[in-house]
Amino acid sequence: MESGKINLTIESDLSQVQHVGEAVRVLSSQLELDGAMPSSVELAVVEAVNNSIEHAYASECGNTVEVSFEYDKDCLQISISDYGTPMPRKIVEMLDQSEVRMPSGHVGVDSLPESGWGVQLLKSVCHRVSYARCNRKNNLSLSFKRAAEKHPITAA
Amino acid sequence: MESGKINLTIESDLSQVQHVGEAVRVLSSQLELDGAMPSSVELAVVEAVNNSIEHAYASECGNTVEVSFEYDKDCLQISISDYGTPMPRKIVEMLDQSEVRMPSGHVGVDSLPESGWGVQLLKSVCHRVSYARCNRKNNLSLSFKRAAEKHPITAA
Amino acid sequence: MSFQTITKDGVAVVTVTNSRLDASIAPELKQVVSDVIEAGSTRIMIDLDSVQFMDSSGLGAVISSFKLTGKKGDFVICNMNESVREIFTLTHMDRLFEIYTSSDEGFARLCA
Amino acid sequence: MSFQTITKDGVAVVTVTNSRLDASIAPELKQVVSDVIEAGSTRIMIDLDSVQFMDSSGLGAVISSFKLTGKKGDFVICNMNESVREIFTLTHMDRLFEIYTSSDEGFARLCA
Ligand SMILES: Nc1ncnc2c1ncn2[C@@H]1O[C@H](COP(=O)(O)OP(=O)(O)O)[C@@H](O)[C@H]1O
Ligand SMILES: Nc1ncnc2c1ncn2[C@@H]1O[C@H](COP(=O)(O)OP(=O)(O)O)[C@@H](O)[C@H]1O
Q: Which one, A63, A125, C36, C75, has least CB within 10 Å?
């Protein structure tokens, strides 16, 4: 299909995130993506939704996280929105940097971080990530490229 | 999981219904249902969403169909809502009748109906169907029973 | 392209290439079959091998195709997956249609 | 119940029985491993055979379990499916952990 759109909404409860994850995985498995598996798309979206719940809403139930899944023939764009505390500026700046920073394998075990992997993982699986806040709504937008369509070979 | 909820929203365009169908199928495949396959749940929801688009909105694009997917330990309830023309009373009455009417196999080929199967199919796969209109919102609610949990046998 | 038609030995095989035969493409199936009949075919097989999901509009289009063809023996369906078969069973249409589990069997029946 | 622990020959095998090791249950894994260590185990294997999906909180819980155990040779992971392995690869944690493709291998390693 050339283009499509569906919105998904859950409450800010970590036990509900799996429903978004499963829906996003099956929806993206219908689109052939360039350099991303359906499971990576699921991972990126789950990280973003977890962050909205844990950070924007400070794990308080009863708020809403919206996920819009939208594609055209070139690109899949998934936006994760909440109405909570905005992302700190230094995280937004990190999103804008193209490089992904993971701790090197040489780091000592004891200094390995137990959290703070989410945003780096997001960046490493998406083609582009952008963040905007507008009218109290925070919006994190993840894009993935669709694989070019294979045209049937037509005899000359 | 004991309980969960996710809302799905699409525009009133028949080409978008498949996204709801796929999401609903994968979400219901996570719940063991009593007497309904994930593909039957998908069928029932697709029939209901098609009807909202084709009848409530007279196939006019730019309107919204909402699907809420909600379960507790006993039951899965899926509600399909639109803001269009309400269902005619005779269809609502038919929903309330417990029997399902399919044309018999003895009917002549020429008198076989080419449409009008949707509501009967809905009724035949759901445990219960109910319809309500409130504040210009039409709501068709489909319930499915969850299979009783198999408790692990504990040694006496 | 959601459908493909091949005519062989006077039999028109209409293959649904889309994975969903739903309300968004069902009217096209009716049109394709009507075109095939207009072009002179009297024996038609609908091949549903690629179809993972069918709704009542898809069923309606199959019924309409059947009616256009006119005679039972000249219209067969093949390669239904389990969820497609369910909609035929629920509506009792499995009793009315000639359904084959492979395209070879369906084709052989039409050539008999 | 998202986890199951069996201690055999001094090795604690913690099996994640849930299909998702995500933010909603990751803190429990940390707790389970911490309890097992409190109870005296020094060699631990995490069996991820049932896990279809893991997020960064799940990874964090595995890292935390590793740190609690203390020594590399005494902590192994087994039975990662493809999408779970991807998160270890993306974060380079596949270089740090001892990962086995079967629980037998992992167990043998801890008993060596
Ligand atoms: N949606 C958000 N709203 C507010 N702050 C956020 C959001 N997402 C991330 N952050 C901030 O960015 C930091 C890094 O996020 P992340 O890499 O996902 O790691 P973690 O969530 O494990 O701390 C978080 O600790 C938090 O301070
Ligand atoms: N959501 C709805 N809003 C208004 N009318 C409806 C709705 N759903 C069904 N109907 C009415 O009920 C009839 C039977 O519906 P259905 O069994 O699905 O068959 P079909 O859609 O093929 O006509 C429709 O023709 C329409 O008149």
A: A63
In chain A the domains, ranked by start, together with CATH numbers, are 4-98+114-145 (3.30.565.10)
Q: C49-104, pLDDT tens digit by residue?
A: 999 999 999 999 999 999 999 865 699 999 999 999 999 999 999 998 999 999 99
pTM of the model: 0.94
Give the helix/strand (H/E) hosting B23.
helix B17-28
Model pLDDT for residues B55-80, shown as the tens digit of each residue: 999 999 999 999 999 999 999 999 99
Tokens 């037509």 belong to A154
Find the radius of gyration of the CA atoms of chain A.
17
Candidates A80, A81, A82, A66; CA nearest to A9 is: A66
Give the distance between the most distant pair of CA atoms in chain C.
35
Q: Is the ipTM of this complex over 0.90?
A: yes
Ligand number nearest CA of B91 is 2
Contact check, Cβ <8 Å, A23/B27: yes
Q: How far is B11 from chain A (nearest CA, A)?
A: 8
Task: Please give the interface size between A and B, counted as residue pairs whose CB atoms are below 8 Å apart.
Answer: 65
Give the residue from D57, D71, D86 with the most A CB atoms within 10 Å of its CB, the best one to mutate.
D57
For A114: left if phi > 0, alpha if psi spans -120 to 50, otherwise beta; the answer is alpha
Question: Could you tell me the domains of chain D?
Answer: 3-103 (3.30.750.24)
Amino acid at A94: M
Q: Which one of B90, B91, B115 would you pick to mutate in the ligand 2 pocket, going by the greatest count of ligand atoms within 8 A of its CB?
A: B91
